[in-house]
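[Automated response] Your request has been received and processed.

Submitted sequence:
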Amino acid sequence: MQWRRHLAGITFIIIFVISYFTNKFVLSVLNFTYPTLFQGWQTFIGAILLLLSGKFGWVEMSRISRSAALSWLPGSVLFVGNIYAGSRALSCIDIPFFFTLQNSSHVVSYIILKAVHREKTQWMKFISVSIMLLSAINLPLHDPQFDSSGYLWAVGHLLCVGAYRVFQFHYKSTNFSDLEQQCINYLFSVLLLAVAAHPTGDLMGAMEFPSLQSYTFHCGCCASALLGFLLLLATVKLKSGLSLEHFGVWIFLSKITAMCLSPLIFYMDFNIPSLTCVAVSHAAEALLLYSQRDSQL
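Generated structure:
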């Protein structure tokens, strides 16, 4: 049984790394910076594959009522903000720096929990999130490729990720599985991003995109959509056999793997201070995982 969990974890890491690298390639190397279309395409394919998988019995999904779907609407709004702002940020920021900023989403979750649930202060947790915040604040001061718009979108991304984490794990209804939650997210995202494609200018910009007829571009977009769906399945499979804290460890290992391999795939301009921010932030994340071994978040 233990080897099956390790196999599921290794599979998750592989799909996680390839998925992020594919997205980074399309957004940065190919410079397809039209998130309403890129994320709309990913969520559209994800929704189709998930609905087909449920219909053929490959995954377990129950029928979702309209009232239940509406109750999950705040989570779907946060999900759209997460993927939209995340795409904007990832197109401008290197993967190690992106994950360092993303770690600050734990600060957002911590503040919400303190404000809403009045949780007792755990000093180890408080220290770890404080270090993550300080690392994220100092990173743009030392980033040789500082892009103000990328960092602003990263702030929006981490706010949505932190709020979504709290909403997901503290959602009162237990009627939804992770797959059902994601199905609602996908369908809502497709609708909202399709409506926003023209007002944001993404639709007209993409029509003039020079690589639109490129074989590499088509392969990258198709791969990103398929990998996103596979990552969802790998995530659900891994979570089903692990506690939340152990699942967090596998996510941590996935990010470390992606950060270590990314300089081999993508050009990066970094220095000692910026790498220190990355290392300190993820050391703090390891400390947070240790402090959470008896908690839910």
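Summary generated for your ticket: DSSP finds 13 helices and no strands in the chain. The CA atoms of residues 4 and 241 lie 9 Å apart.
If you did not submit this request, please reply to this message.
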